[in-house]
Amino acid sequence: MKKNRRNFIKKTLLSSLALSSYSFANSLSAKSYRKIIGSNDRIKIAFQGLGRRIPGLLSAAISQQNIEVTYLCDVMDDQIAKASKRFFDLTGDQTKSEKNIHKIFEDKDVDAIIIATPDHWHAYGACKAMESGKHVYLEKPCSHNMKESELLVSYQKYFNKVVQMGNQQRSSPHTIELINKIKQGAVGKTYKATAFYHSNRPRVPNQVFVPVPKGLDWNLFQGPAVRREYTFNTWDYNWRWYGWDYGTGEAGNNATHELDIARWALNVDYPNHVDVYAGKYHFVDDGWTMYDTMEAKFKFDNGKAITWDGQSRNAFEKSKEGGRGTKIWGSEGSAFVNRAGYQLYNLKDELMFDSLSLENKNRYLSGGNISNMTNLHMKNFFESIRFGEKLTSPISDAVISQSLVHYANISYRSNQSLSIDTNSKKIKNKKAMKFWSRDYEKGWEIKNPN
């Protein structure tokens, strides 16, 4: 009897609410009304990794509607202190801090985790977050190796969580506009693209064994990686260049972005062949242990091709092209796009459309455009959690772009060209397949969720 009464009251209340809001809701679009209703759903988030990406990511998160930052997490005390101060300066509030992300995994009140750690933590952190019931915004590269990409997709399907990779140009309005124009035939049938990154990275310190810096939990920093003694100055960004324990080279650091745009523009998936020319040619006696120059060529089943031109320490033509971007060739024209805008050319090399204004270029060079892209990309992530919005870079698609990076690195490390089975995604060369995964510290292995 009491149960029937409760059901009657509930139905009556819902009916009243529906009637009172009908005229208001009817005057709005379905999408607008959905956002107003959904805005009552507060999303509680935590940040793991408080280094160079935290200013943009933190600003983007707190600018969104009804987001609560519940934790700031890092293995280094100084990073936590700096991020906490930034958070207070932006919001006037304080939030909890934590060095061990596993304690945040255990907190059932946390809905999503923003992961911006070194590369070797990305897949492990994302998989453990999904396992604990959390959605994931995962900075690029989404994985350290091909096996981890497979695991990320398996975990996402099994736990049915929202997982967005942080290749923010996927949410760039001008890039989306260009891709739509290309799909509509603006340059004819596409057949080739060149993605590039030109920088002037300086000499890096040679590694020497030193005591672990004050405030650093070196064991947690290493995480899934096999343990070793600390060397100067590994924890602060140079982990990218000190071998393969933690980083994925410049390809993982920057090619991830531009190769993704090239693949998007050409509408291709996994390559069938990869050739790489790479080496270290600058400051040959410094601590940098991998290539600083790479040219990689990817061929696809439909006859299309992508080239990666990576110059980490030779910024030739950087002033002309902004240091990074993607060039696309088609049967009836060509296009160029970077984070500032895009250009369309006909077959006579005549400029037909140009959004690369001086204002846009200056804003890009000062970081303005990337900040806006990050805001939009994170907004898309949160709206996918709340309303089921389609992700601009879902992990199932992101790992395809990431595979180009991994294939290039494997080709370099195995010193051979790769033939790839586009169905299994596996490399046909046995010597190269040993780089498909890596060694893990005991107890830190990522196991298939099935």
Question: Outline of this structure?
Answer:
By secondary structure, this protein is of the alpha/beta class.
Write up this protein.
This protein has 450 residues and is α/β, with parallel strands linked by helices. The protein has 3 domains: 1-31; 32-169, Rossmann fold (3-Layer(aba) Sandwich), CATH 3.40.50; 170-433, Dihydrodipicolinate Reductase, domain 2, CATH 3.30.360. 40% of the residues lie in helices and 18% in strands. It has helices at residues 2-26, 30-38, 54-62, 77-91, 101-105, 119-131, 146-159, 173-183, 218-222, 249-266, 318-321, 358-365, 368-387, 395-414, 430-433; strands spanning 43-48, 67-73, 96-98, 112-115, 135-138, 163-165, 190-198, 208-209, 231-232, 273-279, 293-299, 305-311, 324-330, 333-337, 342-345, 351-354, 418-419. The strands form 3 sheets. A 9-stranded mixed sheet has the order 16-15-14-13-7-12-11-10-17. Strands 3-2-1-4-5-6 form a 6-stranded parallel sheet, with helices on both faces. A two-stranded antiparallel sheet has the order 8-9. A hairpin with a 2-residue loop joins strand 13 and strand 14. Helix 10 crosses helix 14 (395-414). The chain starts with a helix and ends in a 17-residue tail after the last helix. 43% of the residues are buried.
